[in-house]
Amino acid sequence: MYFVRHSIRDTRIKEDESAPLTELGKQYAMQMSEFFQYKNIQHILSSPYKRTIDTIKPTAELLNLNIKEIEPFKERIIGEWVENFDEFSLRQWSQTDYKLPNGESLEDVRNRIVPSYQKVLSQYEGDLIITGHGTALAVLFNELTESFTYEDWKNMKMPDIYQLDYDHQNNISFKKVEMNF
User: Fold this and answer.
1) Whether pTM exceeds 0.90
2) Which among 45, 57, 111, 157 is most buried, taking Cβ atoms within 10 Å?
3) What is the domain extent for residue 50?
């Protein structure tokens, strides 16, 4: 199983769900498809956000696979535009129940994404790709490894690939795939 964090987002667009990739982000998405070209990928699942779909679309086209949108893989809802994102994120990681009005805490994200991931494990067989967002994936990785931290989240790139090998829903190994973007 591969997890892909979306490529570079165009931050000029404040609407989270419709924010596209930058031109460089699109180039990285094309380069990333080459990594998956000879993998035995059978399913591609993604957050419904435009930047995640656009990140994995070149891979889906290359492999002739459909992209199944999974709503719970969406990004954490912040609630309002945050000027100091690093400060906000550090507070969320140190107080996992902290959230802004109309936003989600990291606990809220965990309660949404973990059951959805478990459902994926029970519904899909074979190698697959899940495309999502930094915070949502980091919360899932923290749950799966019990060691993925705030610092690991900060070091995630756009795009980024992680590989999880498992046997009957038991994790065997988890690693970051090094790519030269």
Assistant:
1) yes
2) 45
3) 2-177
